[in-house]
Write a structure and sequence with these properties.
The chain has two domains: 133 residues, Rossmann fold, CATH 3.40.50.2300; 133 residues, Response regulator (Rossmann fold, 3-Layer(aba) Sandwich), CATH 3.40.50.2300. It has a six-stranded parallel sheet with strand order 2-1-3-4-5-11, sandwiched between helices. A six-stranded mixed sheet has the order 7-6-8-9-10-12, with helices on both faces. Helix 2 links the parallel strand 1 and strand 2. The protein contains ten helices and twelve strands. It is α/β, with parallel strands linked by helices. Helix content is 45%, strand content 18%. It is elongated and about 65 Å long.
């Protein structure tokens, strides 16, 4: 008899919950929300900034909602899409409520993302998207706008007087970098009346040494180049990368504003950097996932871009302070 009563009570509760869901009635707020955060690599400081942002978001949102919110950081030591896929599967099997991920390869990660969503896990992407997947939102840079900003700042640094410029472009197959190159070219087209011309787009392996060597080699062969539009900051992650370039009066503007790059701005060898919201990758993506779970709220847009940060000698100290915060330096 007792078993029958318990069974009937359980069925009644289940029916009530189903009825409430069907009628769009508010569901109980969960007591704990766990969000898995998967960046591209532990070794890259931009993702350490994202980790700080994710942990801060969990702390702030725990206070806001009065429940426990956990950011579970799961990131490979180096970029590895297959390892990221494994982390997704592990997090889903552990029962996480949501996942925020920067995709090393959006195509490779489409299937594991879709499998997670099919099991009720809310997934958003940051920094690097998987646009064909069932993720509900993306937070990151507008790559074409970043390319345009690089060219605008380069033209300004060159006194808007025209001249040949070169584009340093990294991996030729990377969609985000190609979008930035398109942005540089589009802005260059608008400036052609000022006498700016494109010498060429130069691709290279994405290491500091290879990138620095490419810049110096091209500049030596083409001494008329008056400016470099770098859609990634690769050569600026090492010292003396602009020997034979900056000392010739050549102007340089680059995407990203990592601490190593700031030294080039301080020395006057780089005229401007176009910075990304690396902290916000973690903070905003975790916030969107938690709001989706707790408030049943989607962001206003699927693609969410941050405002670009232009770094020059005038504000380089302020940006260095930001990095101290983002990397948890005292």
């Amino acid at each position: 008899m007792k078993k029958t009563v318990v069974l009937l009570a359980s069925l009644a509760l289940g029916t009530m919950a189903a009825f409430a869901a069907a009628c769009g009635l508010e569901q109980p707020t969960p007591r704990k929300v766990v969000v898995g955060v998967i960046a591209k690599s532990q070794s890259n400081p931009v993702f350490q900034a994202a980790r700080t942002g994710a942990l801060d978001a969990a702390r702030d949102l725990s206070k806001k909602y009065g429940i426990e919110i956990v950011a579970n950081w799961q990131t490979p030591a180096n970029e590895d899409a297959q390892k990221q896929a494994q982390f997704i599967e592990q997090l889903v099997s552990q029962g996480v409520d949501g996942i925020s991920i920067s995709c090393t390869d959006g195509e490779v990660l489409k299937m594991p993302i879709d499998a997670a969503v099919a099991k009720g896990v809310q997934v958003c992407t940051f920094d690097s998207d998987s646009p064909k997947s069932k993720r509900f939102a993306y937070y990151g840079i507008d790559d074409e706008a970043a390319g345009r900003a690089v060219m605008r700042e380069l033209a300004k640094a060159m006194g808007n007087k025209g001249g040949p410029i070169a584009i340093l472009a990294g991996n030729q197959t990377a969609p985000n970098l190609q979008a930035r190159v398109r942005g540089v070219k589009a802005e260059l087209e608008a400036l052609k009346g000022n006498g700016f011309t494109l010498k060429d787009v130069y691709y290279h392996a994405e290491t500091a040494a290879e990138a620095a060597a490419k810049v110096q080699q091209v500049q030596t062969s083409n001494p008329d180049i008056g400016g470099w539009a770098m859609v990634g900051g690769w050569p600026l992650f090492t010292q003396n990368a602009l020997n034979g370039v900056a000392d010739k009066g050549v102007k340089v503007v680059s995407v990203d504003h990592l601490p190593q790059q700031l030294d080039y701005v301080r020395k006057g060898e780089v005229q401007a950097l176009i910075g990304q919201d690396c902290y916000g990758w973690g903070y905003e993506s975790v916030r969107m996932v938690v709001e989706k779970i707790v408030d049943k709220k989607d962001p206003p847009k699927v693609i969410n871009n941050f405002d670009l940060k232009v770094v020059t000698k005038e504000n380089v100290g302020e940006v260095a302070g930001l990095w101290d915060k983002w990397l948890n330096k005292k």
